[in-house]
Amino acid sequence: MAFTLRAAETRDASALNALERTCFGDNEDSFSPSQLKYLVTKANAQTRLIIDEDGALMGYGTLLFRRNEKKARLYSFCLHPDIRGQGLGQRLLLALEAVALTRGCDSIYLEVRADNRAAISLYRRMGYEVLHWMEDYYHDGCAAWKMIRSLGEGSSAAS
């Protein structure tokens, strides 16, 4: 199956909401439809989508930017369970790193659930390093790891 990556648009809000519910459930740590729409339309953010050949949304990642800061924050990263393990997470992450570089960022940081071994493994393979442990970070009490990756020379995003 072929997949394409593209920037999110306003028309993607309901598909983003459906994917968010599929991947994260309906809990206090997942985004509401209005939050997702804001991220795509008004926030100082960039969202990239993975679309399958039938036009279905299969993954997304959102970067947040702050004025006068050279670090981007990977705010959300989500792959439909049906496409995990096919290298698409790496492809999406590389696309987001390229976006951060074009915005003048020199690094990306993120928080990841301590029990999300697949995501932690992906981030480590992609060169993200652990900064510190964040106890009781998520609403359900799960801890998180804060991780960062330099986008300087020699990084895969810069090549």
UniProtKB/TrEMBL annotation:
Residue intervals of the N-acetyltransferase domain: 3-152
Alphabetically ordered keywords of this record: Acyltransferase, Ribonucleoprotein, Ribosomal protein, Transferase
CDD domains: NAT_SF
Cited SUPFAM superfamilies: Acyl-CoA N-acyltransferases (Nat)
Pfam families: Acetyltransf_1 (PF00583)
A molecular function (GO) term: acyltransferase activity, transferring groups other than amino-acyl groups
Annotated Gene Ontology cellular component terms: ribosome
Protein name, entry field: Ribosomal protein S18 acetylase RimI
